[in-house]
């Protein structure tokens, strides 16, 4: 059976983009694949995290998985730092990946910004740890949003180079799974920027725990142009904010953008935004409520994470044994 690995950083503010681009697909894949879903806390600390908040945000990611429908008795849910293989394999991959490859990573450039010299070494090596996350389980498929495509290409390059260097097919060449009508949800304040947890403006994103009033307020303030919605999807191309809201509607309703326009072409945003608010509240309300209930029961969430870590460790152990033997480490 093919194996899935994916993760979300516990950096707070889980939003519509994380859900539509990733978590919802995690749920849909679990009947067809063996699935491993992680709260990637080691990735989170590549930028400063308050320790107490990190602990709570790690539980929040697990709660989001559970509330969205990931079944813990079937799929594995765990925290990255509780399985040693991630750090061990990441070091080996740091010695396989080339500096030139990492220099090309756009996420590092965006996150480090102008203050590159002051960014952590971990932020720079992030894609190498991501390759380790996936390959420690020899996962074959990785469901992600479009922004992670470049990192997955690097994972493929690392696997290929490792296999070539040692003359052995140790690692599979992973396939990204990027699907749905909202693989790149944009900020509600700026249609050229992706919706992100770290955007300083709360109005840029709808979070999974926002209630009706917050969703309505944020969508009301969402930037748009003055024209009504067009008839054809192609006519959204030069209208990023309108395209984003139509894409969100389509993804939430599980229909195509063309179908959304069939119902709403000619409509002003004063009509479309309230309809989108209703839909978002209908879809997210139960998830947000369940997340809050789970966050009030940390002992249960921790028990899921502990059991998940044990199962993940058992899967990673034989892979790490093979890798260490291949590299030439002594094993006792
Ligand atoms: N805007 C988005 N649209 C679609 N998918 C998205 N993802 C993130 N933003 C969008 C997908 O969510 C998964 C988890 O992302 P992550 O937490 O590991 O890191 P990220 O991509 O860096 O997410 P953020 O929200 O933008 O966080 P910050 O602000 O910390 O950088 C991934 O599959 C991602 O593709």
Key features of this structure:
mainly alpha, binds adenosine-5'-tetraphosphate, 332 residues, Tyrosyl-Transfer RNA Synthetase, 3-stranded parallel beta sheet, Rossmann fold, two-stranded parallel ribbon, single chain
Main beta-sheet strand count, sense and barrel state: 3 strands, parallel
Overall radius of gyration: 21 Å
Number of distinct helices: 13
The CATH architecture category of the largest domain equals 3-Layer(aba) Sandwich
Helix content: 40-55%
Number of domains: 2
Please state how the strands of the largest beta sheet are arranged side by side.
1-2-3
Write a concise synopsis of the structure shown.
The protein is mainly α.
Helices and strands in order:
Blueprint: E1 3-8, H1 16-29, E2 34-39, H2 41-44, H3 51-68, E3 76-79, H4 85-94, H5 99-103, H6 106-112, H7 121-135, E4 141-143, H8 149-166, E5 175-177, H9 212-221, H10 240-253, H11 257-264, H12 269-295, H13 298-327
Parallel strand pairs: 1-2, 2-3, 4-5
The chain binds adenosine-5'-tetraphosphate.
Residues 8-9, 11, 17-18, 21-22, 144-145, 147-148, 183-185, 194-198 line the site of adenosine-5'-tetraphosphate (AQP).
Describe the structure.
The structure is a single chain. The chain is mainly α and 332 residues long. The protein has two domains: 3-177 and 298-327, 3-Layer(aba) Sandwich (Rossmann fold), CATH 3.40.50.620; 202-293, Tyrosyl-Transfer RNA Synthetase, CATH 1.10.240. It is 54% helix and 7% strand. The protein contains 13 helices and five strands. It has helices at 16-29, 41-44, 51-68, 85-94, 99-103, 106-112, 121-135, 149-166, 212-221, 240-253, 257-264, 269-295, 298-327; strands at residues 3-8, 34-39, 76-79, 141-143, 175-177. A three-stranded parallel beta sheet has the order 1-2-3. A two-stranded parallel sheet has the order 4-5. β4, α8 (149-166) and β5 (175-177) form a beta-alpha-beta unit. The longest helix is centred in the C-terminal third of the chain and has 30 residues, at 298-327. It is globular and about 70 Å long. The structure holds adenosine-5'-tetraphosphate. Adenosine-5'-tetraphosphate binds at residues 8-9, 11, 17-18, 21-22, 144-145, 147-148, 183-185, 194-198.
């Amino acid at each position: 059976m093919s194996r899935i690995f994916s993760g979300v950083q516990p950096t707070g503010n889980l939003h519509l983009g994380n859900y539509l681009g990733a978590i919802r697909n995690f749920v849909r894949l679990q009947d067809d694949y063996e699935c491993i879903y992680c709260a990637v806390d080691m990735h989170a600390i590549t930028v400063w995290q308050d320790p107490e908040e990190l602990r709570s945000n790690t539980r929040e990611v697990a709660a989001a998985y559970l509330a969205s429908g990931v079944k813990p008795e079937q799929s594995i849910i765990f925290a990255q730092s509780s399985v040693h293989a991630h750090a061990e394999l990441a070091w080996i991959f740091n010695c396989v990946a080339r500096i030139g490859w990492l220099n090309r990573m756009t996420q590092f450039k965006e996150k480090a910004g102008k203050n590159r010299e002051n960014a952590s070494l971990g932020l720079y090596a992030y894609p190498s740890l991501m390759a380790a996350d996936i390959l420690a389980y020899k996962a074959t498929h990785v469901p992600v949003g479009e922004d992670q495509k470049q990192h997955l290409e690097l994972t493929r390059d690392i696997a290929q180079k490792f296999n070539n260097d040692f003359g052995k097919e140790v690692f599979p060449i992973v396939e990204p799974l990027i699907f749905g009508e909202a693989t790149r949800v944009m900020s509600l304040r700026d249609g050229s920027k992706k919706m992100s947890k770290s955007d300083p403006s709360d109005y840029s994103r709808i979070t999974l725990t926002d209630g009706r009033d917050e969703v309505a307020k944020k969508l009301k303030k969402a930037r748009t142009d003055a024209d009504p919605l067009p008839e054809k999807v192609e006519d959204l191309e030069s209208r990023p904010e309108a395209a984003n809201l139509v894409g969100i509607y389509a993804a939430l309703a599980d229909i195509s953008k063309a179908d959304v326009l069939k119902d709403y072409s000619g409509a002003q945003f004063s009509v479309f935004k309230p309809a989108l608010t209703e839909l978002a509240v209908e879809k997210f309300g139960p998830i947000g409520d369940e997340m809050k209930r789970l966050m009030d029961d940390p002992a249960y969430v921790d028990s899921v994470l502990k059991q998940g870590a044990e199962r993940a460790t058992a899967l990673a152990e034989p892979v790490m044994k093979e890798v260490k033997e291949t590299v030439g480490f002594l094993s006792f």
